[in-house]
Design a protein that fits this description.
CATH architecture: 3-Layer(bba) Sandwich
Distance between the termini: 11 Å
Radius of gyration: 22 Å
Structural class: alpha+beta
Number of helices: 10
Strand order of the largest sheet: 12-2-1-16-27
CATH class: Alpha Beta
Shape: globular
Number of strands: 27
CATH superfamily: FAD/NAD(P)-binding domain
Number of domains: 1
CATH topology: FAD/NAD(P)-binding domain
Bound molecules: flavin-adenine dinucleotide
Length: 507
């Protein structure tokens, strides 16, 4: 007999939204706690959500850009700047981590490159019940629900790397990854992007290539496919409860029996009050940085969880290395087109790591002098990525989050730096990159394994020594995907939900 089931999901990014929606749609009672606000976008307005928070634009940009800034050395490990802020930054030793805060998580800020892992045989060798064949249908399911599109010539996307570097003597478009897809609503007629209404009554506008506003500061008109639109909107109609501005501080296991319930403590950021709810099952998906923070704090400070000897080990950055390519070519406007332009490499360098990028949409709304805005339009963000060896550690030191990561252990960083240098030298266009790499793809620390000896969660996503507690986000990934990871996280979460539905009956 299955006991009464009620589920709390923490975080609404790729890990949280997918499992929350799947389980609610299978008739389980699910409450989703998300620290960030609903964003004020065309789709969210059409969903009838009354309290929304503007994306950072214009003079609100300085106050809405950052939610929190943290670091190993910081008292209390972070300073909270604005509960409406879009990004959180954490300055760790060896790497800087960036993540975001919204109902819909990282889908608001990401570049919407929707691909499977580039690392070959990614899911093989971690657990006998998990393999590439087991995971493949979950990628198919999430790519379909995201409505991800393969970009074709018919889409007439301007300013792609393929077009820009086709005839360059020194650079060339990189070969696209297998099955390259994009999470944008591309226009049927690029000269006349229109508003559409989906099967759930959610309204969105097709991407407007000329006035593109769909980048890392969110997508006000819904041209970018976000999780609130495609996962949460239908699930709300099937009974999902979403509590925005609910910041979880701790998870406490109420007893030692295998079916012990959990208490989830959180701050209601609308009222400032501390609240708590209990649940038979908890799915943690607060993003790698905050999932590890919550687990470590709950175990080491509150004493609410026990065990997990591998917690915080094998933290990785997916080899991310960001820079700004000051291309400054007369007539070039990289804000036209999509915020992701496709890969580029030195001509003939077939061994070059994956390097891609895109312009800075919505530059015209930055509160900066016009000359600087025009200069930014003529440049691109540029990023290299690839498999790292996940040598980082995440722990608490005197109650403060402490992350240490050694880039010298992963050859990918030198390969990216060398390639940046080659590209800058060949074109005479400088690439400005910080000494310490920034990652937007933190992974691991609560990894899939076969037992507590080599992992934190098993094949169903459940924490080995805290039954009923699951990790559905990038913290559970056993290895760096080597390319953009969102579809891998979503597929893992979809797998976790499928396993849960197979094992339990709704109340
Ligand atoms: C600028 C940028 C560009 C990117 N481009 C791409 C791309 O093109 N393709 C790709 O695949 N990936 C891309 N990514 C990465 C992708 O966004 C992340 O890998 C993905 O969002 C991680 O999913 P997640 O579920 O692990 O965490 P997230 O999506 O970060 O979701 C975690 C959620 O949990 C919430 N949360 C955190 N703490 C708490 C708490 N205490 N209580 C309650 N809620 C909490 C957060 O607010 C957030 O909404 C990009 C990221 C950035 C920043």
């Amino acid at each position: 007999m299955s006991k009464g089931i009620d589920i709390v999901v923490i975080g609404s990014g790729f890990g949280g939204s997918v499992s929350a929606a799947r389980l609610a749609e299978a008739s389980f009672p699910v409450t989703l706690l998300e620290r960030g606000p609903w964003r004020d976008t065309v789709p969210v307005r059409s969903m009838g959500i009354p309290q929304r928070s503007a994306l950072p634009r214009g003079w609100q940009l300085p106050t809405r850009l950052l939610r929190a800034v943290g670091g190993n050395w910081m008292p209390g490990s972070r300073v909270k700047l604005s509960k409406h802020g879009l990004f959180e930054l954490f300055f760790a030793k060896g790497v800087t981590i960036a993540c975001s805060s919204n109902v819909g998580g990282g889908s608001h800020v990401y570049s919407a490159v929707n691909v499977r892992p580039l690392a070959e045989k990614y899911w093989e060798g971690h657990h006998e019940a998990i393999s590439d064949a087991v995971m493949s249908p979950h990628y198919d399911a999430v790519l379909e629900r995201m409505g991800s599109t393969t970009p074709m010539a018919d889409h007439r996307i301007p300013n792609t790397s393929a077009a820009r570097f086709k005839d360059s003597p020194v650079l060339e478009p990189a070969a696209p990854p297998p099955d390259p897809r994009l999470g944008y609503l591309l226009p049927e007629d690029p000269d006349n992007p229109v508003k559409i209404t989906d099967d759930n009554g959610v309204e969105r506008y097709e991407v407007d290539y000329k006035g593109n506003d769909d980048g890392f500061l969110g997508s006000p008109k819904g041209g970018k496919t976000t999780l609130d639109t495609v996962y949460l909107a239908p699930a709300l109609k099937r009974g999902l409860t979403v509590r925005d501005m609910a910041e979880v501080t701790a998870i406490v296991r109420l007893g030692n029996e295998p079916d012990a319930r959990y208490r989830i403590e959180f701050i209601n950021q609308h009222s400032g009050e501390r609240e708590a709810i209990t649940a038979s099952h908890v799915i943690l998906a607060a993003g790698t940085l905050n999932t590890l923070r919550i687990l470590l704090h709950s175990r080491d400070v509150i004493g609410g969880l026990t065990g997990m000897p591998q917690l915080g080990k094998h933290f990785g950055s997916n080899g991310d290395y960001f820079g700004f390519w000051d291309y400054n070519q007369a007539g070039l406007d990289q804000t036209v087109g999509l915020p992701t332009t496709g890969g580029v490499r030195p001509r003939g360098d077939t061994e070059a790591p994956m390097i891609g990028g895109g312009g800075l949409p919505s530059v015209d709304s930055y509160p900066l002098p016009k000359a600087l805005r025009e200069r930014l339009k003529r440049g691109t963000m540029i990023a290299g990525l690839g498999e790292d060896d996940m040598c980082g550690t995440v722990s608490l030191r005197n109650g403060r989050l402490n992350i240490e990561y050694d880039t010298s252990r992963s050859p990918i960083f030198k390969r990216i730096k060398d390639t940046f240098e080659k590209m800058a030298a060949a074109t005479g266009k400088k690439i400005y990159a910080p000494k310490t790499p920034i990652t937007v793809h933190p992974t691991g620390g609560a990894r899939l394994g076969t037992s507590i000896e080599d992992g934190v969660v098993g094949a169903d996503g459940q924490v080995f020594d805290n039954p009923g507690l699951y990790v559905a986000d990038a913290a559970a990934l056993p290895r760096a995907p080597g390319g953009p990871p969102s579809m891998t996280i979503a597929a893992w979460s979809d797998h976790l939900a499928t396993e849960f539905i197979a094992k339990h009956k709704p109340r």
